[in-house]
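Lab meeting tomorrow. Look over both lines:
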Amino acid sequence: MRSTYASIQRPDGRIVAYSDSGPQGGIPVLLCHGLPGARNQIPNTTILDQHQIRLIIIDRPGFGMSTPDPNCSVLNWRHDALAVLDTLGVAQCVLLPYSAGTPYALALASLAPERVLRIHIMSGVIPTEARDLQQMSAFNRWLHSLGNNVPKFWLQPLVSFLNLVIGVGAKAGKFGIWLMRGTFTPAENAFVAAPEGAVFRDMLSESFRQGFLHYFSEFAIVGAPWGIDFATITHPITCWYGDSDRITPASAAQRLQQLLPQTTVRIWPEAGHLLIFMHWDALIASLTTKV
């Protein structure tokens, strides 16, 4: 059950942190974390050994231990990802984007197609349209609006206020769970509170290690046009959505197929947005199957 936490330094001096888990000779899988998210999103390493999966997760700028990047964008993040893969000696990998990690993964597949074997999308966000917003919970519509409409000169004072009043790290994570309880299904709320939900709670704490700034900044990045040429993505794609997901509704799968016709869709009954956590073993087993 190998699990290593490390970092590299980019030419501009920024630190990019990542985790590297599972057998080194296994199938390399790059998990692009959600929003919030961090490199410690690893529910079970035993299953990685069982299916010979090498799981790599990179903290995006401003999350976990990675240095903020004022030039961060969906397209630019590929440079950090490729630098980590090069450091680890990974020539090609399977992409496993979760939620808001989806545009970053698709940008990597578009701009460095030779480095990607196939793509498995979990609860993936899609380019936002009004009809998609209407299917989100009121809380997530508010977050989307806040991230995209708050003037930049107001964002820093707002973030400083939240960091001071709510706190960072574990305190921010607990606050996030309290806010999201109305978005989650009853089964998800039970999972988050249970011992096995520690992986989700720990991930939130690490995600907010540096406070709220990049949480809101990423809403603006993901909500803006991605700049991806979808026609250049020809890799096999599968996507999983929960039919009770109120953050990235299952209807997003239809839009994803319109953008990427090679996509195969699987809808999980009675599952919400924490599908990747609650069905982790089944997901990892599916990664060994070429689509």
